[in-house]
Amino acid sequence: MAMPLTTTRISPDWPCQVKTPGSYDWERSATKWLRDLIPARYSSYPALIRHPVLLARHAQIQVQQEIRVARTALQTARAELPVLGLPESVIEHTIKLYAAEVMQLQHIARSVRAVSEALASHSTGR
Question: Are the C-beta atoms of 106 and 6 separated by less than 8 Å?
Answer without folding.
Answer: no
